[in-house]
Amino acid sequence: MEKFPIVDTHVHLWHPKQLRYPWLAEVPTLNRAYLLKDYIAAYGALEIESIVFVQCDTHPDDGLKETAWVTSLAAVDPRIRGIVAWAPLEEGEQVAPFVEKLAENRLVKGIRRLIQSESVDFCIQPNFVSGVKVLSRYGLSFDICIFHPQLANAIRLVEQCPHVQFILDHIGKPDIKHQLFDPWKQEIATLAAFPNVHCKISGLVTEADLEKWTPADLQPYIEHVISCFGFDRVIYGSDWPVSTQASDYPRWVQTLKDAVSGCSSEALRNLFRDNAIKFYRLDS
């Protein structure tokens, strides 16, 4: 494999003995601690230059504790250059003091409030939209994490927040297992028309058949998001350790690299490194 430095924009770490993660009880294969040492073992010989930690849906009372814990990890491994933290954005304008406190931490680059587990209309409720708008006041981005049926309303959210920088996690979680493309395909094109939206190419293997997926299953989805967003607005993420349900770390990197094998070295570097540094402001 060609050597290039990777910026991994979607790393989860969790420690159930320190923080509460209610959802882990439903996923036995992931219901243990996943720590930095495990991540380092997982990527093997690959060169990981920087890491963006993404919140792990802790119990709401542990949201700030999670950010503090990861900040302490960054003191041990300075490759942790960014944190996408949790905030209760559904509180609307009242969330501003909470977000302001997070923004005081130089590692916090963005916010993710999971939408995927909520109703289809959750992200267009007035209070939620107001909470997302607050982020631009503090220079923070928003990670959109949804399942594909929620994509139409995610577009409506973005329409109302022109001053917020958005990134779509896991290409909107299309149904890759059943090779469904519509209306995801059209909605991705609509979302890509907004210049303040990037797309994270991550989490594809867990939307495919966990045990039987092939690179060919993922290829048309990868090609479509790149054709819509271009190599200037797509960003690599591992979604480790959630991804371990379907793939080891090197296999996912190789699959994505093979999927874009015809691209230029500049485009490859944009995808795996440079776009991430720019979007998450990792050099500031």
Write a short abstract of this structure.
The chain is α/β, with parallel strands linked by helices and 284 residues long. Helices cover 36% and strands 13% of the residues. α6 runs parallel beside α7.
Q: Major β-sheet, in short?
A: 8 strands, parallel
Question: How many independent structural domains?
Answer: 1
Tell me which oligomeric state these chains represent: single chain
H/E element order: EHEHEHEHEHEHEHEHH
What is the mean predicted local confidence, pLDDT? 97
- In whole angstroms, the N-to-C terminal distance is 30 Å
Q: What CATH architecture would you give?
A: Alpha-Beta Barrel
Helix content: 25-40%
Q: What is the overall silhouette?
A: globular
Q: If you consult CATH, what is the topology?
A: TIM Barrel
Spans where pLDDT lies below 50 across 5 or more residues? none
CATH uppermost class: Alpha Beta
Sheet-strand content, in percent, reads 5-15%
